[in-house]
From TrEMBL:
It comes from the Bacteria. Belongs to the inositol monophosphatase superfamily. It comes from Piscinibacter gummiphilus. This is Inositol monophosphatase family protein.
Length: 268
């Protein structure tokens, strides 16, 4: 039987293979017909689909008996999202930041996470452009290119905090409330439109927080585990924990718990 430890080191090379074969050869080289609107304002490319297939086959070979829940497979069959709290499940985002990729912006990532009986055990994020390789294992810390990573020791006060405030999907009343209170924080950023870039930016201190509304598991399970294992704090708007199978909305992530509570009080 497979175990997390036996497969842990093999996931990032698999993501890199998918990037090298399916993603990077098409960056700024997309042809007519390579981009499809799978839903309103939601794009998918041949790179997304081919990368997901490569990753899925590789992960199932690493852990026989597991199952893969990929973003593109779920777009075709949403029922795949059921049962994330049972068994061994790989969550895969083959190209996080597809809109950026299509526009030729170098802000995208290839991500996977491992969930066992509903608990996130491992997370892997590859930045194909910079080459950064992030990974986290529950209880064992977060690493970037082999170096142990921790959020900065200095806690940034609310008035100096900068981070992404993503209001696009907020209900109208909540959006109006949040936007009216943005003056209480240091700087509200528009966001990278790529969770695989947003969470590492908190760990490295480029920003101190990120506020999301939609929290699809392939987007947020990898980053939340990276951040938590690096010493950051993550919670639903009401303070509850975030889990892969949780279908609710709203997520606030911060470099530390005191800042998290200050942000919640200021914005929500």
């Amino acid at each position: 039987m497979a175990s997390p430890d036996s497969v842990f080191d093999q996931v990032l090379p698999l993501l890199a293979e998918a990037s090298e074969r399916a993603v990077m050869p098409r960056f700024r080289q997309l042809r007519e017909g390579d981009v499809i609107e799978k839903a309103k304002d939601e794009l998918v490319t041949v790179a997304d689909r081919e990368a997901e297939t490569i990753i899925e086959h590789g992960l199932l070979a690493l852990w026989p008996g597991s199952r893969v829940v990929g973003e593109e497979a779920c777009a075709a069959n949403p029922a795949l999202l059921q049962g994330l709290d049972r068994g061994t499940v790989w969550l895969v985002d083959p190209l996080d930041g597809t809109g950026n990729f299509v526009a030729g912006r170098p802000v995208f990532a290839v991500m996977a996470s491992l969930v066992i009986d509903g608990e996130a055990i491992g997370a892997w994020v590859l930045n194909p452009v910079s080459g950064e390789r992030w990974r986290a294992q529950r209880g064992s810390g977060t690493f970037c290119d082999g170096q142990r990573m921790r959020v900065p020791d200095r806690s940034v006060p609310l008035q100096e905090a900068r981070g992404a405030v993503l209001t696009r999907f907020l209900p109208a009343a909540l959006k109006q409330q949040v936007e009216a209170k943005l003056g209480r924080i240091g700087q509200a950023l528009p966001g990278a439109r790529c969770a695989g870039v947003e969470y590492p930016a908190i760990i490295t201190g480029q920003q101190q927080f990120a506020m999301f509304y939609r929290t699809l598991p392939w987007d947020h399970v990898p980053g939340t585990l990276l951040l938590q294992e690096a010493g950051g704090h993550v919670g639903r708007y009401d303070g509850g924990a975030y889990h892969a199978g949780d279908e609710s909305v709203g997520l606030l992530s911060a470099a530390d718990e005191p800042l998290w509570h200050a942000l919640k009080a200021a914005l929500l």
